[in-house]
UniProtKB/TrEMBL annotation:
Reactions that this protein is recorded to catalyse: arsenic triglutathione + 2 [thioredoxin]-dithiol + 2 S-adenosyl-L-methionine + H2O = dimethylarsinous acid + 2 [thioredoxin]-disulfide + 3 glutathione + 2 S-adenosyl-L-homocysteine + 2 H(+); arsenic triglutathione + [thioredoxin]-dithiol + S-adenosyl-L-methionine + 2 H2O = methylarsonous acid + [thioredoxin]-disulfide + 3 glutathione + S-adenosyl-L-homocysteine + H(+); arsenic triglutathione + 3 [thioredoxin]-dithiol + 3 S-adenosyl-L-methionine = trimethylarsine + 3 [thioredoxin]-disulfide + 3 glutathione + 3 S-adenosyl-L-homocysteine + 3 H(+)
Protein name (record): Arsenite methyltransferase
Origin species: Cyprideis torosa
EC number: 2.1.1.137
A family per Pfam: zf-AN1
Length: 525
């Protein structure tokens, strides 16, 4: 196998990530990344040359057998026309690498534009390629030997910055590593000194180019303090080198631009950094409102006592630690901003902030006044219940893993959903994701509409799941209209999920499982 390439091809912290390799050749980097991202990750190689891809694909079965997972894909195509490869979806990738390929492209800006589209917010291009110290003169660009040496198409490094700025959603490129390229060929050397009397140099450079988050546009003049936790796996010491001149040492608090902080916060690096409270970031006025009325968890003195510090949901604490904003602590137990109008819990009648309004979010101690799970009771609904349960047994008969032991079957179902689910609340943080398969309402199933896998935040309510599911399945949803036939979600036992409950909450009550199926149906109440 022949190796090409320049620079360090592998970015840090890619475990579980989706990675795209542009101009993957025979797939050498794809297979290394396949190991680095692990079984939960995905590595896609694209190349225009069928012969290269044939070699790459030849190794696929061997790698799958040896390591026990299948996470590589190869597609033939042009990196200037990545929209023609339907498997590459907008916002799908954490990292895009390319090793000595961009110099060969005649439309480098088109390549960057596709990368901008395919990256997640906070995602990163990690490109190793050949750059020139000034625009490469025409004579050199037309020279066959220079082309073969990857010099003809070398991009003037400042043009890379210009392209990124023109494309709009990319941060300025950050050089990670650069090494000089000596031109050995005597004739080429002459040609260079003839056409560029005051010199022309070439270098192999690795750049990181981050995709901005939607918050990074207007605040780039501000700074934010961050602390690296020293936790990026595989780094030999406790320093993370983001780019030349920008090293993060474990435990050291440093100031970075607000837009870089936002990118780190959105990116796969987020768990390796602490984002410190007092920053120059814009202060949301709604988080610093003076206390005028009730506050989160307020009620009678005894009631307030019940909402003690150990009742704080853990996500709330994490949220505070990572926030750059000046939160107003409305009561000592709650670190969330006080909402403008207090929201009252229907069970305990205390007032809560937006985050804590659901009973399970403030570990409501009051006895349930309303049944959280509605069970069919009368004769008419018994027939309805039977129809719902039949829908789930139909599915099992079609061989969806019903015969294995339930725990294994559930694991398998979750794994499959994770791979298939592309729609729903896709922007949610990995650890917050909840996967569901949604069966369509009977009248749509009868006309052939298939079940769809969706991604949800586990903090979302059933009401939200219904909206997302109806949207994805493209079925009418009139839940906001009075008197309309209500869309509801049912589990395999025929229980209707209560709209106000969060997925996390229902999981705790064992009313559903992550990776499970729910039926969307118009209720006959
Ligand atoms: C110098 S090789 C590098 C291969 C691989 N990245 C490596 O480091 O070993 C360049 C590769 O890019 C591919 N390539 C060049 N231009 C391309 C384009 N416009 N679209 C897709 N692939 C391209 C070629 O087929 C070739 O496999
Ligand atoms: Zn609260
Ligand atoms: Zn309550």
């Amino acid at each position: 196998m022949k190796y090409y390439g320049c620079g360090l091809p592998f970015p840090e912290a890619v475990e579980g990530c989706s990675v795209l390799d542009l101009g993957c050749g025979t797939g050498r980097d794809v297979y290394v990344l396949s190991q680095l991202v692990g079984p939960e990750g995905r590595v896609v190689g694209v190349d225009m040359t069928d012969e290269q891809l044939a070699v790459a694909r030849e190794f696929q079965p061997w790698h799958e057998q040896k390591f026990g997972w299948k996470n590589t894909e190869f597609y033939q195509g042009y990196i200037e026309k990545l929209d023609e490869i339907s498997a590459l979806k907008e916002g799908d990738f954490d990292v895009i690498i390319s090793n000595c390929v961009i110099n060969l492209s005649l439309d480098k800006k088109a390549v960057l534009s596709h990368c901008q589209r395919l990256l997640k917010e906070g995602g990163e291009m990690y490109f190793s390629d050949i750059y020139a110290s000034k625009p490469v003169p025409e004579a050199l660009r037309r020279d066959k030997v220079a082309w073969g040496e990857c010099l003809s198409g070398a991009l003037f490094w400042r043009d890379l910055y210009a392209y990124c700025q023109e494309l709009g959603a990319l941060l300025d490129p950050l050089p990670v590593q650069a090494s000089a390229i000596e031109v050995g060929d005597a004739r080429l050397k002459n040609l260079i000194s003839e056409t560029c009397p005051d010199g022309l140099e070439f270098a192999s450079v690795t750049y990181r180019i981050f995709k901005k988050t939607d918050k990074t546009t207007s605040t780039s003049a501000l700074t934010q303090e961050v602390k690296y936790l020293g936790s990026i796996p595989g780094s030999t010491d406790t320093t993370f080198c983001l780019s030349h001149g920008r090293k993060f040492r474990k435990g050291e608090t440093v100031s970075v631009t607000y837009e870089l902080a936002e990118v780190l916060r959105m990116s796969r690096y987020k768990s390796h950094f602490e984002f410190l409270g007092d920053s120059g970031s814009p202060i949301n006025p709604f988080t610093i409102l003076e206390k005028t009325g009730g506050s989160c968890g307020s009620g009678s003195p005894e009631q307030e006592k019940k909402f003690s510090a150990d009742n704080i949901p853990i996500h709330c604490i994490i949220h505070v630690r990572n926030t750059p904003l000046h939160w107003k602590f409305s009561v000592s137990a709650c670190h969330e901003p006080r909402s403008l109008t207090p929201i009252t819990c229907a069970r305990c009648n205390l007032s809560f902030c937006l985050k804590h309004r659901h009973p399970c979010d403030h570990k409501c101690t009051a006895v349930s006044q309303q049944q959280s799970i509605l069970q069919a009771k009368n004769d008419a609904s018994v027939a309805f219940l039977a129809r719902i349960q039949a829908r789930f047994s139909d599915k099992r008969d079609k061989g969806c893993g019903g015969s294995k032991n339930p725990a294994t079957a559930q694991k398998v179902a979750l794994m499959r959903l994770k791979q298939r689910a592309k729609l729903g609340q896709t922007g949610v943080a990995e650890e917050e994701k909840f996967f569901l398969e949604i069966l369509p309402p009977a009248r749509f199933a009868d006309s052939g509409r298939a079940a769809v896998p969706i991604i949800m935040s586990k903090l979302s309510t059933i009401g939200k799941v219904i909206d997302v599911a109806a949207d994805v399945l493209d079925v009418p949803n009139e839940n906001n209209r009075e008197g309309a036939k209500m869309l509801r979600l049912f589990n395999a036992q025929g229980q209707a999920m209560s709209e106000g409950e969060s997925l996390e909450c229902l999981l705790e009550k064992a009313a559903l499982v992550n990776g499970g199926s729910l039926l969307l149906e118009y209720a006959e109440e």
